[in-house]
Amino acid sequence: GQQLNQSPQSMFIQEGEDVSMNCTSSSIFNTWLWYKQDPGEGPVLLIALYKAGELTSNGRLTAQFGITRKDSFLNISASIPSDVGIYFCAGQGVTSGTYKYIFGTGTRLKVLA
Amino acid sequence: DGGITQSPKYLFRKEGQNVTLSCEQNLNHDAMYWYRQDPGQGLRLIYYSQIVNDFQKGDIAEGYSVSREKKESFPLTVTSAQKNPTAFYLCASSSRAGLYNEQFFGPGTRLTVL
Q1: Cβ separation of A4 and B42 shorter than 8 Å?
Q2: I want to staple A42 with a disulfide (CB 3.0 to 4.6 A). Which of A10, A111, B15, B105 is the partner?
Q3: Which chain B residues contact residue A48 at CB under 8 A?
Q4: CB contact under 8 A, B56 and A99
Q5: Chain A residues with beta carbon closer than 8 angstroms to that of B58
Q6: Can you tell me whether residue B43 is helix, strand or coil?
Q7: How many C-beta neighbours within 10 Å does residue A1 have?
Q8: Among A19, A91, A29, which residue's Cα sits nearest to residue A61?
Q9: For A23, phi and psi rounded to 5 degrees?
C-alpha cells in the first residue's frame, strides 16, 4: 500500500534543543494527524490538522498543514527527556479512500540529557 | 475512563494455530480498524468496519478474519493461513468513517509465533 515519506528517520538531540520533522506525499490530503508512540505501546494522538496552512499547537508541539496539501511539519520546542519516542504522521484524503489513513514510517527521537 | 482496550498484551502461538485478538472500545465510535506494525514500516491496514455487522478488507487482509457483532467490539482472528503473523497489532476507532475523523489507538497486542 501507499506510504508517506517521513524525515528524518531518526535524530539525536540535546535536551533543550528544538526539533523539526516532516512528512511528504505525492497525494493531496484533507487531514493530517501526528502521533507519538512509546516502545511497546499504542500511538497517542498529538495534533490533528484539517485545513491547508493551518498551524496548531499542543504545549511545546506545533504542527502545520502544508499549503500544497501534500506535506505537514511537526516542531517540538525545548525538548526534554520524555520526548523520546517515535513520531508518526498520518494523512487522509480522497485519493487514499475516505475511510483510511496512510501512515509514515516514523521519526525516532532520542534526547540526550 | 473512555478508551480502547486490547487483550492480551502478549500472545504466543504455535504454527498452525488460529488465535483471536480482542479489541473493545467504550467511546461510542462507529468505525473500528485493525493495523499491523512491523519494524521500520508504517502501519498497514488489515480490516476496518464502518458500522455494526459490516466490515471491509484493508491492504493486507489475507490470513486474517474479523467480526463486528457489537458496536464496541471488533475481534481479529489470525489464522494459520497468515504466513508471517509475528507482529505488533493495533486496534483503532473513530467516531465515524469518512474524512475529518481522528483515529484513536489501543495499547496493542504483540503476537509471536513459536
Answers
A1: yes
A2: B105
A3: 102
A4: yes
A5: 100
A6: coil
A7: 13
A8: A19
A9: -130, 140
